[in-house]
Amino acid sequence: FNVDSNCTLVDCHASTDLALLANELSNGFIFIGRENIARGCVARGHSLNGFDIAGTNALIVDSISNGNGLSGYAVSGSSISLVNNIANFNGEYGIHVDGTSASIVENSVSQ
User: Fold this and answer.
1) How confident is the model at residue 25 (pLDDT cuts 50, 70, 90)?
2) What pLDDT, on the 0 to 100 scale, is given for residue 23?
3) How many CB atoms lie within 10 A of CB 18?
4) d(CA 31, CA 8)
5) pLDDT in tens, 85-95
6) Cα Rg for the chain, rounded, in angstroms?
7) Cα separation of 22 and 65, whole Å?
8) For residue 83, pLDDT beyond 60
9) pTM of whole model > 0.85?
């Protein structure tokens, strides 16, 4: 899913089989705009990131990201909030923050 600006996603699922995408790069959700919310979403089995958050003023809450090739949640935007999410069995990081400002509250990460 590519998410531009002023969008709210509720109970969305972005799942794939890594074996089928052996030669393709994929992210589950890509947030590129501003003022976006994802609540109760699931990203599973992507070759790159489950949630790639490069926009501004995004809230990801009560979501799950597991079995992705790089990060469960890759944050490179500004004013991003991750609240009460789960990241497990991702290849590199559960949560990787490389942005200017992020709030990480009550998340669970395991490998």
Assistant:
1) confident
2) 63
3) 16
4) 11
5) 999 999 999 99
6) 12
7) 19
8) yes
9) yes
- The whole-angstrom separation of Cα 111 and Cα 102 is 22
* Contact residues for 35 (Cβ-Cβ < 8 A; gap 6+): 5, 6, 56, 57, 58
Residues 6+ apart with CB under 8 A from 20: none
Exposure string over 55-65, b if 16+ CB within 10 A, otherwise e: bbbbbbbebbb
* Cβ partners under 8 Å of residue 67, min gap 6: 18, 44, 45, 89, 90
Per DSSP, what are the bridge partners of residue 14?
43
- Amino acid (1-letter code) at residue 43: A
State yes or no: pLDDT of 22 exceeds 70: no
Determine the straight-line distance between the first and last CA of the chain, rounded to whole angstroms: 25
Residue position matching structure tokens 């501003």: 34
Residue 21 is predicted with a pLDDT of 53
